Amino acid sequence: MDDRALGQIITFFEVVNGASMTRTNRPPMGVWFLEKESLMEFVINNRVITPIKIGITGALDPKAFEKMCENFRVGFEEGRKCNYILKIESQTVYVNLYQDKGFGKLIIAPKRIIETINTRRDMSMSRWGTWKYKMVYNKWFELSIPYKFGTVLDMQIPNWITKVKHIEKENLNKNDSFFIGKRAENALELMALLRSCATVAGIEKYLFLGFGTLLGVAREGGFIPNDRDLDHCVAGEYITPHQEEKFLQEIARSRTIDGKTYSKGLYEGRCRKPVRRRDEGQRFLWTSCGHKKVHGQKGVKSCIWKFFKHEKYDWHSKGRRWINTRKFDYQLYDYNGGEDAIAKGIPTGLLDQFKEIKFHGVTINIPKRVGACLDEWYPGWARPKKGASAKKHVMVIPDWKKPNGWKVY
Fold it and tell me: Which CATH number applies to 3-162?
């Protein structure tokens, strides 16, 4: 799309946003934003494609919107699959108006789209809950997308992760990537091996990719450049202690791969023994494995996290390994170092359903609501940046045997 057309489209909708403001200079429900395929292409491939699809959430009367189109000499007509079809600088723009009730063929409750947060350092955000991204063609343009854009994608385009076509990012320096060449092959091999271990234990439906590895699958169609390991997760709510132990035994079982014997199984090149809960059940929380050494054999390590439920969240933890001020400020989370564990959580319901996909020929599972999970773990995940998953929900566990004393922040 040329600069002039994109500039005219953005200018028009910025004026529309201004028209929805009240005398207190505050829109009742929100602003304009990219949606559906336009949102998906911008988030994943950092480009604007035609036709553009835009949503407007706010108390903007349809008649007032039509009047603005007339004033700006913008051609419009009512659409069958959207509220309006506009013509701006010969470009087609599909528009949906979202309100609490009454108007529109497609209704999305604004509270599920808009969430107000503080401005982030690396990208500006309006106080009404949208990211403002600067995009370069020959000029700078600001485009609005919902704060929880992954959640919106999940709602508007079911199974969007299997429909998007990833393009190679122009600014991606492959020399900075860890997962290239033989190491990428070894990573896929380790994924397949862990899947086979889960199958033997009868938990293949509940082993899924998470965190940075899931982000790579969704945003890059591969691995993110600044990642250094894999992240596999287990939905602990749906497996038995026997299945859990069988899975760990399979990981450690001696095996022969391509004529080479690995006496310690998938712990041969990387071995971090399972961290366990300090209660009667002693169920595992985390382990790290890899059949080939990272240095020397271009191997890959994989963390394996087992999620457990408490109150309204699903939690993952490294037990006492996270009890340190470098990772968790004791003044924020009120702990003194003698506790059993610290955990990070994600709202219950996001890790209850999974879907099977093919990732470079390897069968894997991912959460069904992949966009919503990434919104929780990496807010603003359309823009690459370094760092661990967000600490939006933290729990201090003074004693595994006394759940009533666990402190949720």
Answer: 3.30.460
